[in-house]
Amino acid sequence: MAYSAATRLLACVAGCLIAGTALAQGAKVSSPVELARRAQALKPGQWVWAPAIAPAGPVLVYVDLSRQLATIYRNGVRIGVSTVSSGKPGHETPTGVFTILEKNAVHHSNAYNNAPMPYQQRLTWDGVALHAGGLPGYPESHGCVHLPYAFARELFGTTRQGTTVVVSDSAAHQVAGAGGEVLAPNVIDGARDDEFWAPQRAPSGPVTIVMSRSDQAVVVLRNGIQIGRSRAVLPGDVDGTHVLTLGKDALGAPQWLYVGVAGHADEAGRPLDAAVRQQVRIPAPFYASVAPILLPGTTLLVTAAPLSQGATGTPLTVLSGDGP
């Protein structure tokens, strides 16, 4: 069925008005206990926000398509949870590891008749973004991740360009219980033809590291651009995904912290054991190159999925599944 431009625009405006009703359906709390309690009972359009739990540190957004939820972490601690609406059949939201490429509080769609997309945070150059939109309780977008209006505004003020966004379609295998999921001092010799280190491609910006068990490889991105790739020996008998962020301990020393993704919220903020790091091995020259850029805010994701191929030197989506 064909729809006129006016009909499409009215539909999108209505969706944003529906999202606006979430202003009365959101809650700001100040304790992890209250955040956890409210997060367990969210209905479509509802959200809970507790930024004071972790007032500073690197931010990571985790979108769980299977549960239609977005969870926000700062310094490895959960500070917000919101219901979402992702891509409908035929327009599925792509899964993978993304960085926020641009932010625009007052944005209109280039593809859908200038439809409003408030508090837009772009994930791909072909139109996938986080933004305020309709929230019927099931996937209904054209590929974007719709958020409640007020929550989209809070999130917009918390993230920055380059913030890491992880989109997953499986709640069952998000975090494994063991395995060496971090760059470690253990090193190996030798190299492969596809290995390189080119930090000049992105001299500055947030760093994201992705390790693939199936490829036995590691990719380093800075500001969304691939600046390095190497082989890595990773345990291959552990399913699931680990997400960590590099923060600081009580004495100010660098420390890897688990992000407690959906189903494993109790891991949030837990430091990585040194013994676990020893299970991962990478070439010594590559580790020496990467170590200086491992600053607070670095995000690490380890997955069993293969790394997707893409042109280096341009904004890159890693581990992206099929989607618009």
Structure overview:
The protein has 324 residues and is of the alpha+beta class. Helix content is 14%, strand content 27%. It has two domains: 5-168, L,D-transpeptidase catalytic domain-like (Beta Barrel), CATH 2.40.440.10; 187-303, L,D-transpeptidase catalytic domain-like (Beta Barrel). Strand 15 and strand 16 (225-231) form a beta hairpin. Residues 1-24, 171-185 and 309-324 have low confidence and may be disordered.
Number of separate domains:
2
Give the class-level CATH name of the largest domain.
Answer: Mainly Beta
* Biggest sheet architecture: 7 strands, mixed
- Discrete helix count: 5
CATH topology of the largest domain: L,D-transpeptidase catalytic domain-like
Task: Kindly report the name of the CATH homologous superfamily of the largest domain.
Answer: L,D-transpeptidase catalytic domain-like
Low-pLDDT stretches: 1-24, 171-185, 309-324
